[in-house]
């Protein structure tokens, strides 16, 4: 029910257009074209000392033809041309947003996780519009989450697009480059709750 909830809160301007879940080559051909992307498979792979990750990739006709008849369920959606990405750590109605200027580098243009260690992306503090914060608070309340890492995109047309929220998302990558000291914020919050005798919630 979560995708429907996101659409209800963010429609019509702030959700990625035309998402489609598929696990067969036929569905992939029908729902994809050279202007679509394949963001991720709904699994992660790892073995012993080696680990494997999946990234957002452009889907073209050749890629579709090379797909097996069946594959792990994957999300297809229309490509969004972005100005920058936004990673937000949210805790107890407080936002810690960070802009990631990944579109300036060909290596990270489609997915900032394809890190360029020789020339890292710029990570800077960012201020969210009040309207976006209101929608995100409404979403987190509806999902019964008091913390999480939220991913968004600011497009080249000036629109904000919600991608996902990770209930167990890390905050270090936001805290350190933006000098937010989120660790201190969390520690003070927990101490205050403990003093007031309130039960500390965990997602």
What's the short story on this structure?
This protein has 203 residues and is an alpha+beta fold. Helices cover 28% and strands 32% of the residues. It is globular.
Keyword list:
28% helix
CA distance, first residue to last residue? 18 Å
> In terms of per-residue confidence, which ranges show pLDDT below 50 for 5 or more consecutive residues?
28-35, 42-51
* Total number of beta strands: 11
Q: Return the string of H and E elements.
A: HEHEEEEHEEEEHEEHH
- How are the strands ordered across the major sheet? 9-8-7-10-11
The structural class is alpha+beta
Shape by Cα distribution: globular
Sequence-ordered SSE layout with sheet pairings:
Blueprint: H1 2-10, E1 20-24, H2 25-31, E2 36-41, E3 45-47, E4 50-52, E5 57-59, H3 61-66, E6 70-78, E7 82-91, E8 94-100, E9 123-125, H4 130-142, E10 147-155, E11 160-166, H5 172-178, H6 182-195
Antiparallel strand pairs: 1-6, 2-5, 2-6, 3-4, 7-8, 7-10, 8-9, 10-11
Task: Characterise this structure.
This protein is α+β, with helices and mostly antiparallel strands. Helices cover 28% and strands 32% of the residues. It is built from 6 helices and 11 strands. The strands form 3 sheets. It has a 5-stranded antiparallel β-sheet with strand order 9-8-7-10-11. It has a 4-stranded antiparallel β-sheet with strand order 1-6-2-5. A two-stranded antiparallel sheet has the order 3-4. Strand 7 (82-91) and strand 8 (94-100) form a beta hairpin. The chain is globular and about 60 Å long.
């Amino acid at each position: 029910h979560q995708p429907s909830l996101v659409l209800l809160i963010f429609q019509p301007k702030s959700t990625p257009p035309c998402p489609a879940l598929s696990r067969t080559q036929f569905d992939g051909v029908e729902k994809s074209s050279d202007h679509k992307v394949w963001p991720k498979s709904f699994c992660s792979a790892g073995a012993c000392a080696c680990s494997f990750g999946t990234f957002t990739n452009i889907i073209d006709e050749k890629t579709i033809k090379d797909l097996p008849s069946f594959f792990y369920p994957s999300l297809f959606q229309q490509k969004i041309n972005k100005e920058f990405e936004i990673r937000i750590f949210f805790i107890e109605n407080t936002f810690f947003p960070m802009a990631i200027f990944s579109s300036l580098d060909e290596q990270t243009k489609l997915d900032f996780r394809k890190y360029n260690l020789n020339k890292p992306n710029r990570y800077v503090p960012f201020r969210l519009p009040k309207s976006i914060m209101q929608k995100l608070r409404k979403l987190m309340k509806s999902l019964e989450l008091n913390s999480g890492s939220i991913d968004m995109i600011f497009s080249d047309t000036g629109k904000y697009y919600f991608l996902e929220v990770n209930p167990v998302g890390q905050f270090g990558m936001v805290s350190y480059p933006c000098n937010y000291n989120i660790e201190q914020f969390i520690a003070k919050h927990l101490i205050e709750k403990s003093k007031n005798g309130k039960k500390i919630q965990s997602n």
